[in-house]
Design brief:
252 residues, eight-stranded parallel barrel, 17% strand, binds 2-phosphoglycolic acid
Length: 252
């Protein structure tokens, strides 16, 4: 299974998100082979949920709070996301770590909250340019994975997606090479093996790559058997590019 996750960030107006989802819905692909999810802003979740009704494209959120209800002004409940039809939630994106001050502890609480609602967390990890230059990348990514998944139990069919997103590759047109991505996928894989039984890692956990993925380089990533998919930002907001990427994934 190859995951194609479209993270629209705050790049589109709500009306554009609704119309883009109506177009993506019509792109043909084999559901047994490719999983597509769209992550619009919270403002558009309801409209996109309606647009995607009856299609095989999944709805996802870009974030959530770690409590289901209460006096939390401005926050978004994971339970309400589930009720709206969300199946996937991105957690710990580097832009949340950077602009919203999310710590490893907060990210861990969010992962628990998403799993409690039987949704699938897409946990983002990745080093900055400075951390890479200081040769700290393995340690940083390993620690992010360990913190994010602290005390997490994976039972039944619950899935877990880890997205390796080097911060220096996001929105820069400077994607990691498949070799660099593969290296860090191995680091993440071995960290997962320290945290979960081998059978869980083999069947329930998926490791994807994100950072300047586009129609020209997606094939190189998806051709790597250890890469279970891609998290796409900028290119997922452009119908021509995103539909091409789905078609490429479907053809492999
Ligand atoms: P990008 O973003 O594809 O625009 O680099 C990826 C992401 O942040 O998930």
């Amino acid at each position: 299974m190859k995951y194609i996750i479209g993270n629209w960030k705050m790049k589109l107006a709500p009306t554009d998100e609704a119309s883009l989802s109506r177009k993506v819905k019509k792109v043909p692909f084999d559901q047994g082979h490719v999983t597509v999810s769209l992550h619009p802003t919270f403002l558009s979740l309801q409209a996109v949920a309606r647009a995607l009704q009856g299609s095989s494209v999944y709805l996802g959120a870009q974030d959530c709070f770690y409590e289901d209800a209460g006096a939390y002004t401005g926050e978004i409940s994971p339970a309400h996301l589930k009720n709206l039809g969300c199946e996937y939630v991105i957690v710990g994106h580097s832009e949340r770590r950077r602009f919203a001050g999310e710590t490893d502890e907060i990210i861990n609480k969010k992962v628990h909250a998403v799993i409690n609602e039987h949704m699938i967390p897409i946990v983002c990890v990745g080093e900055t340019q400075e951390q890479r230059q200081a040769d700290n990348k393995d340690h940083i990514v390993r620690r992010q994975v360990e913190h994010a998944l602290h005390d997490v139990n994976v039972v039944g069919a619950q899935k877990l997606i880890l997205a390796y997103e080097p911060v220096w590759a996001i929105g820069t047109s400077n994607a990691a090479t498949p070799r660099e991505a593969m290296y860090m996928h191995q680091v993440i894989y071995h960290t997962l093996l320290d945290l979960f039984p081998k059978s869980i890692v083999a069947e329930n956990a998926f490791i994807i790559y994100g950072g300047s993925v586009d129609p020209d380089n997606i094939r190189d990533f998806l051709n790597e058997p250890a890469v279970d998919g891609v998290l796409v930002g900028g290119a997922s907001t452009k119908f021509d590019e995103f539909s091409k990427m789905i078609a490429i994934a479907n053809s492999l």
